[in-house]
# Entry
Amino acid sequence: MTDPKRILVIKHGALGDFILAMGPFAAIRTHHPDAHITLLTTKPYAELAERSGWFDAVWNDERPRWHAPGAWLALRRRLRKGRFGRVYDLQTSDRSSAYLRLFPRGARPEWSGIAPSASHPHANPDRDAMHTVERQKEQLAMAGIAEVPPPDLSWLDADLSAFALPDRFVLLVPGGAPTRPAKRWPAERYAELAASLAADGVTPVILGTAAEAEAAAVIAAHCPEALNLLGRTGFAEIAALARRAEAAIGNDTGPMHLIAAAGCPSLVLFSSESDPALCAPRGPMIRVLRKENLELLSQAEIRQAVEGIMRRTDGSAHRTSGSASG
# Structure
């Protein structure tokens, strides 16, 4: 038996997609203020979801392999015990759509998504040509949720005292998917940019994981003033840094979505490997530069774009640097 006050939201990753779903998460909570809302997600995003306050429970989806009947049976039991009256499938993948069939045929919950026989389908044949934000807004509108706010990450913060941050700094995010190197502006170009910023009295702060160690080493060798925080920042620290930085420059990668949503003026670099019309970060101040081949993106273009968005964290007016023509 289903309970209309028990809601399930499905959203896995990656990080950028999860951040873009923050507005829909908040909208679902506002629309169902008295409901018990469960999020079905993957382990990397569980703590972030728990801290948000939008969910009463967060479940880890092990995403069983297609030919693992025992794991699928366990997932089916868990979903049925949830007695969900409505499901918002924000993942809208073949996998998440298949979850509808795990519920009893005569007691299936209302379903917002693209699963066959969904009660509230996102019935737009051009949905795959929409940006993720607009696509999810339209999906929720078709399920009766008319208002979807921009993401509010004011609840996500951290103590940054251990980093000994300078008064003025800019975030550099030189990483990206290891399997898609064409999405990265070359590390040598980031190094030149870092040295140019440091010459202007702005400290470059490098963010990323161990996978970006080589790029960080190139930047540090060219710009000793850079602060390397590789592997030292979780989601909360990244949001806190974004809130205090003058700007951020990075590739089309997950942390840039978090940085932009936290309110940092952000310059995001795209190649032909991805389309900003479909997946660009969203936030109060975003600029996108796109080249088919990022190796052709010049320092002059970067500096001009950065100068146009940088804020002064000391409260004084920003002055355009003479090195912008780099």
Observations:
- The radius of gyration is 21 Å.
- Residues 315-326 have pLDDT under 50 and may be disordered.
- Residues 69-81 form the longest helix (13 residues).
